[in-house]
Design a protein that fits this description.
136 residues, Rossmann fold, 4 helices
Amino acid sequence: MIPIAFTGTSDKVSAKQIWLLNAFCEKLDEYYGGEIELHHGDCINADAIAHAVAVSLDWDIVIHPPNIRTKRAFCNIGRIVKVHKPLPYLDRNHQMVDETVRLIAVPKGLEIMRSGTWATVRYARKLKHPIKFIYP
């Protein structure tokens, strides 16, 4: 299994981003022969969309929920192989990147401070993980 992390905006995701995410994941699926384990943070909007894409491709899924429930998506379908104990956002983002080898990022715009998506990207950069950006 190839563990891949996903991070994305909890705000609205554009139709173009959804289309590009689906197309990119289909290419990954072909390349890795379906042997992918998607790790995501179980938040509304982008994480929930990535979860649905993983379900459609029949990937294994690992969920890293935050300890604050207000923006959780509570994804519960598909091949969920593990749901981690809820952690503070920064800790859960680091855990997700630490357990994977690359990152898919669907931000709401250009890099900013005080953004969980961008904090996850910065940590993945620090670990020299390849990152695929899908911008609006």
